[in-house]
Design brief:
nine-stranded mixed β-sheet; 2 domains; Thrombin, subunit H; alpha+beta
Length: 376
């Protein structure tokens, strides 16, 4: 299919620049994927729309302050000037297997050749908090950085980093994020970092931003089972589409972890024929990837999910079969994005685009801080 078949017109003023004043008060469109019928509701109605016995699966990855600003201080700079110069924006996208190594997007990329040193200080300070050397170069501004060892890397990020808000959320150049973003661009159930868990996400699993402790408790009281897995959001989720046809799209791999409890919850729900509802496209891709891996090794439905960590680059577009997910909670996505293609694979392109046209007409709020859809 042509990527252009997933385009739609969106007035810029409908792109949400801030979260709703109160978490959990977003609008929510429901879409029946069998009939294409949709209705305008509120997210607070979610417990009444799911049924007892449903398994709701959440992605509990925590967003890290992955946007950093550095000055150059390495070989490439020293050849031209003895003093560090040139502000460089760095977005950390994935913790790699090598010690203290991260994949990153660097802008402008031409200022980060192999051997260049990047020095990171806090705003208004000359104190160097982190230092990294560029050890690898990829396409479209991708770089591999090796950081000097520090006692607590994530504490350093919290001190000097900014939340990686997407480019369609506009903030002042001297204030890339706000105190409000630190709280609201994070799910209420995100797991703390430190110890074994040291990666984190470079973008929020945005369908989860709507949940509140109260709504989660109402879901449990309704008899909805809740399980959590972890997929660290990176390039595979938000990279721009550069292919003309969906067949040419290849996603970057993103790492995930499924606990023994989550694996057993999914296996039991499938065994008992209960509906599994995924909160977000990241959760969906993880569940569907693991099911495909299990099927390829001949695992039965009772043993398809096991506790493990891995990575997925699964791309779902119209024609894909969904082996696990029977319901999807998701935000409204960018035109011609892989996320919109996944939603279209689940509910049908024509039906999804019709629902999006209605959302535009009814002035829904779009993208990360916007409203959501429940597709059943």
């Amino acid at each position: 299919m042509l990527v252009s078949e997933f385009g739609y017109e969106l007035p810029e003023e409908l792109i949400a620049q801030r979260p709703p004043e109160v978490r959990g008060t977003s609008r929510m469109m429901t879409l029946d994927r069998r009939t294409g019928a949709f209705a305008d509701r509120r997210f607070a109605e979610l417990p009444s729309l799911l049924r007892a016995g449903d398994l709701l699966v959440l992605n509990d990855s925590r967003v890290i302050p992955a946007r950093l600003y550095a000055r150059r201080g390495g070989l490439a700079t020293q050849e031209k000037s003895p003093a560090p110069s040139g502000l460089v924006e760095v977005l950390l996208t994935e913790k790699l297997g090598g010690e203290n190594e991260w994949s990153a997007l660097v802008k402008p990329a031409k200022k980060a050749s192999v051997g260049e040193t990047l020095m990171f200080a806090g705003a208004g300070s000359d104190e160097i908090v982190l230092r990294a050397v560029v050890v690898g170069v990829g396409e479209f501004g991708e770089r591999t950085l090796r950081f000097d060892a520090v006692e607590d890397f994530h504490a350093a990020l919290e001190r000097i980093g900014h939340l990686p808000l997407p480019p369609y959320i506009h903030r002042a150049k001297d204030a890339p994020d706000r105190a409000e973003d630190r709280e609201r661009y994070q799910t209420v159930y995100s797991q703390p970092l430190g110890g074994v868990e040291e990666r984190g996400s470079s973008a929020a699993p945005t369908a989860g931003l709507h949940f509140t402790p109260k709504i989660l408790e109402e879901l449990r009281a309704k008899g909805v089972e809740i399980a959590r897995l972890t997929l660290h959001v990176g390039l595979g989720t938000f990279q721009p589409v550069r292919a003309e046809r969906t067949e040419g799209i290849r996603l970057h791999a993103e790492s995930y972890t499924i606990s023994a409890d989550a694996a057993e919850s999914v296996n039991r729900a499938r065994r008992e024929g209960r509906r599994i509802v995924a909160a977000g496209t990241t959760t969906t891709r993880t569940l569907e990837h693991v099911a495909r891996e299990a099927e390829s090794r001949g695992a039965g439905i009772d043993e398809a999910f096991e506790a493990h960590s891995g990575s997925t680059s699964l791309f779902l577009s119209p024609g894909a079969e969904f082996k696990v997910v029977g319901g999807l909670l998701t935000n409204f996505h960018l035109p011609e994005s892989t996320l919109l293609m996944l939603v279209s694979a689940f509910a049908g392109r024509e039906q999804v685009l019709a629902a999006y046209a209605h959302a535009v007409e009814e002035r829904y709020r779009f993208f990360s801080y916007g409203d959501c859809m429940l597709i059943l």
